[in-house]
Design goal:
Distance between the termini: 18 Å
Number of domains: 2
Structural class: alpha+beta
Number of strands: 12
Order of helices and strands: HHEEHEEEEEEHEHEHEEH
CATH superfamily of the largest domain: Fructose-1,6-Bisphosphatase, subunit A, domain 1
CATH class of the largest domain: Alpha Beta
Helix content: 25-40%
Largest sheet: 7 strands, mixed
Strand order of the largest sheet: 1-2-3-4-5-6-7
Length: about 280
């Protein structure tokens, strides 16, 4: 299936983008320090919590800090986050909004596994305007702004087209209730094409691996906005293709997302479609 074009994004005041980029980067650095200093302390979920969707004191603390800074720097711009909110159905009517996941990969964080992230994005009605993902264990801050490209610790990143899928890596993730419907068939389809599938426990880092050129694609069958918005900004600015479940180009799809290196989208999308029950 060929990806369909999306509506062009509007122009935004350059000074606003620059300020949002600077503030988001500062918050990502703050979060990276906190995560590396506190990970692996053995917290356990409450009986009512899903082990795939835990809430931690660190997450609450980082989100409160993020909200406090953003309310001072961007008064009147709403902030939605993993720990305290459900995203309202009218969120897109706010104009600009911030979306934060203070610890993406909480189960890994609690266990001390070195694979979790802090994710933050400024969003308008066309998708992410600014996005940052802090990768604390690799001492990396990935950042992007619309029309300004992606950078990893300040170094520009740009993807090149990939000619084949064989021997590549595709990332996916569990839902909060476990495997998504058709996941086993998706993995089997990729294996027949001699492609490895990895479930690493952080949606934002899964997408970031595509933006960085380490993985050729990431498929997320479901997610919350704050799981993916920051990383999608990276992927788009690095030159990855972002499509929804139907193969339509979208900067922030609402129902499933495929992020892929140029040249492999159609094949990976076919595996996803074939896997659907």
């Amino acid at each position: 299936m060929t990806a369909l074009p999306s509506e062009p994004a509007r122009q935004i005041d350059a000074a606003l983008v620059s300020r949002a980029f600077e503030v988001a980067g500062r918050l990502a650095n703050d979060a990276a320090d906190v995560i590396t200093a506190t990970a692996g302390r053995g917290a356990r979920p409450a009986p009512t919590e899903s082990p795939f969707d835990w809430v931690t004191d660190t997450g609450r603390t980082l989100e409160r800090h993020t909200r406090r800074v953003l309310s001072e720097e961007f008064p009147g711009t709403p902030v939605f986050g993993e720990e305290f909110d459900d995203l309202p159905t009218d969120a897109r009517s706010h104009g600009f909004r911030w979306s934060v996941d203070p610890v993406d990969g909480t189960a890994n964080y609690v266990a001390g596994l070195p694979w979790c992230a802090y994710s933050l994005a400024m969003i308008d009605d066309h998708g992410p305007v600014v996005g940052v993902v802090a990768d604390p264990y690799r001492a990396q801050i990935y950042a992007a702004a619309r029309g300004r490209g992606m950078r990893a610790n300040g170094v520009p990143v740009q993807l090149s087209a990939q000619r084949e899928t064989r021997a590549g890596i595709v990332c996916t993730e569990l839902t909060k209730d476990g495997p998504w419907a058709g996941m086993n068939r998706f993995i089997s389809g990729a294996a027949r094409a001699q492609v490895g599938v990895r479930l690493l426990g952080s949606p934002s880092l899964a997408i970031a691996q595509v933006a960085l050129g380490h993985a050729m694609a990431a498929v997320l069958d479901s997610y919350q906005e704050w799981d993916v918005a920051g990383a999608l900004a990276l992927a788009i600015e690095a030159g990855a293709e972002v499509v929804d479940r139907q193969g339509r180009t979208a900067s922030l799809p609402e129902d499933g997302v495929l992020v892929a290196a140029p040249g492999v989208t159609t094949e990976v999308l076919d595996w996803w479609h074939t896997a659907q029950p």
